[in-house]
């Protein structure tokens, strides 16, 4: 019975994940998820799943009790009441998932970036290693020799073993199965540097789009690789490194000088992350409004000469803003369109976040 319940529960979880997969774009735009950790449960409203249950009526009056004449309609009161709607209702239920489970669903549409073996091997992946024998397990892992050996020992102990007729008949309690444990296998070092424009042309809506996308990139990569380091830089006309909480909650104003972020990023990498030791992933988020064409040219020069030679990838995400020119993505396309390490995307609304992440990590990149 327990096994049947477990199978039903697993089947239900698969149905739930299927519903979530259908509405994945919507779940990626929930700003209240920012700041939650991978193992903490979060409630997700899922449409279209209704669990079977009993409905009990009110039988307090007994069968056939109450006023009524032959031919009266059953189940309709005489009061006027409010007019009921004519459209069918949408059945909603909330299920608890972890951010890791949501990241797994997202991963079906994505491909992990190629992280090369470098440095002191601080990043780990998990693999299964068969490490012992236990008395329970699936038949596919049954260990024949150990089961036969246990049956032989049992028959010798109880006196059922006949050397002249050595027939060994294993019983259920004799069965032995291979056991395994998860082994963390070191791979490499990696750092992700998130850079965000917090100037006056970046309104709250634009900053929210940036925070949502960077949050899911960070969550998804951390789900797949342990030990990844994330660093955060914000900028207007000048740039500075901030912690994770500040990055997701900072409110600032001012002009825009994108090159300041790139220079601060290069200083950070030079101080802490040698390209010989670290895989380096860079993401910059802006509305594309830069202070001048001269600064945009400086940015291209910084990318070509200092950042791209040491980075595994540079991703630029431009969010739509009513106040910005949106020209910086055109500058990148003009000078770096065919560069293998440069990927760009546009995000005009929350619905575009899903496609933007697929641009950076989609299968085939």
3D shape: flat
Q: How far apart are the termini? A: 47 Å
Residue ranges: pLDDT <50 for 5 or more in a row? 31-36, 42-51, 89-93
Mean pLDDT level:
76
> Helicity level, as a percent range?
25-40%
Provide the gyration radius in Å.
30 Å
Question: What composes the largest sheet?
Answer: 6 strands, mixed
Query: How many E strands?
Result: 10
Tell me what portion of residues adopts beta-strand conformation: 15-25%
CATH C-level class of the largest domain: Alpha Beta
> Helix segment count?
10
| SSE arrangement, N to C | HHEEHEHEEHEEHHEHEHEH
CATH topology of the largest domain: Rossmann fold
- What order do the strands of the largest sheet run in, or round the barrel if closed? 7-6-5-8-9-10
CATH architecture of the largest domain: 3-Layer(aba) Sandwich
Structural domain tally: 3
- Per CATH, the superfamily of the largest domain is von Willebrand factor, type A domain
Q: What class would the helix/strand composition place it in?
A: alpha/beta
Topology:
Blueprint: H1 2-22, H2 24-27, E1 41-47, E2 92-98, H3 99-107, E3 124-134, H4 144-158, E4 177-186, E5 190-197, H5 204-224, E6 229-235, E7 239-242, H6 244-249, H7 258-272, E8 279-286, H8 293-307, E9 313-319, H9 328-336, E10 342-347, H10 353-361
Parallel strand pairs: 5-6, 5-8, 8-9, 9-10
Antiparallel strand pairs: 1-2, 3-4, 6-7
Helix pairs in contact: 3-5, 5-10, 7-8, 8-9
């Amino acid at each position: 019975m327990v096994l049947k319940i477990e199978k039903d529960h697993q089947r239900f979880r698969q149905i739930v994940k299927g519903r979530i997969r259908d509405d994945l774009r919507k779940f990626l735009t929930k700003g209240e998820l920012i700041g939650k950790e991978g193992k903490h449960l979060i409630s997700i409203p899922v449409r279209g799943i209704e669990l079977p249950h009993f409905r009990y009526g009110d039988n307090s009056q007994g069968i056939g009790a109450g006023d009524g004449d032959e031919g009266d309609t059953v189940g309709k009161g005489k009061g006027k009441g409010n007019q009921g709607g004519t459209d069918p209702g949408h059945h909603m239920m909330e299920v608890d998932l972890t951010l890791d489970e949501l990241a797994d669903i997202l991963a079906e549409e994505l491909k992990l970036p190629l992280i090369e073996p470098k440095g002191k091997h601080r990043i780990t992946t998990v693999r299964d290693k068969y490490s012992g024998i236990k008395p329970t397990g699936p038949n596919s892992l049954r260990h024949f020799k150990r089961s036969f050996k246990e049956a032989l020992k049992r028959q010798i102990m109880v006196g059922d073993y006949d050397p002249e007729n050595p027939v060994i008949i294993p019983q259920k309690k004799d069965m032995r199965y291979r056991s395994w444990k998860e082994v963390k296998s070191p791979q490499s070092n990696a750092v992700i540097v998130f850079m965000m424009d917090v100037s006056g042309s970046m309104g709250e809506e634009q900053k929210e789009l940036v925070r949502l996308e960077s949050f899911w990139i960070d969550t998804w990569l951390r789900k797949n690789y342990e030990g990844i380091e994330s660093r955060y830089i914000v900028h207007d006309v000048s740039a500075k490194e901030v912690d994770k909480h500040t990055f997701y909650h900072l409110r600032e104003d001012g002009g825009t000088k994108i090159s300041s972020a790139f220079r601060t990023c290069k200083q950070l990498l030079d101080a802490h992350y040698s390209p010989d030791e670290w895989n380096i992933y860079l993401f910059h988020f802006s509305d594309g409004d830069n202070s001048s064409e001269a600064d945009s040219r400086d940015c291209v020069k910084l990318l070509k000469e200092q950042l791209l030679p040491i980075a595994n990838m540079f991703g630029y995400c431009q969010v739509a803003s009513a106040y910005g020119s949106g020209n910086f993505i055109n500058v990148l396309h003009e000078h770096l369109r065919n560069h293998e390490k440069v990927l760009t995307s546009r995000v005009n609304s929350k619905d575009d976040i899903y496609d933007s992440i697929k641009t950076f990590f989609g299968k085939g990149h």
